[in-house]
Amino acid sequence: MVAGWQVRFQLSDVMRAVYEIRVSGLIGREDVRLRYGEGVVFWELWEKALMTAAGYRRIALSFPGASEGAHMGHPDFRVGGRIFCTLAYQKDGYGVLMLTPEQQAGMVEDAPDVFSPVPGGWGRNGATRVRLDAVGADVLEAAMRMAWKRRAPKGSAGAAP
Question: N or C, which terminus of the chain has less Cβ within 10 Å?
């Protein structure tokens, strides 16, 4: 999924480089392209649906009662003292959701390029990798909500019955 927009500026050649640096630093990605044609500078920003570890963390902590901890030296996110997702495979570009095996099967079937079982026994029990560079915030939030509901204490607002 790619969304793009353009902004036109009348800038001198000197100012072009200054704005390119500022915009690139502002968004922290290489998605900014600068074109110069017919005396007009075109900024093109292609906003990809890329998730980062910071975005993953922000979404995880947005759920009621969620807190950040650590398990085996990796960030994890808990509700009621129970882990619902982690960044255990962050260095490999993945987050992990603690789903049921049935939920995992549905996610993998619907989006195999985004979701996959964690290798080994944890994966057979529903631990599901999420490819951060392939998932949009809306899909991640919905999947993470399933994991959160599964682990939230009974009687919590929005928890599984």
Answer: C
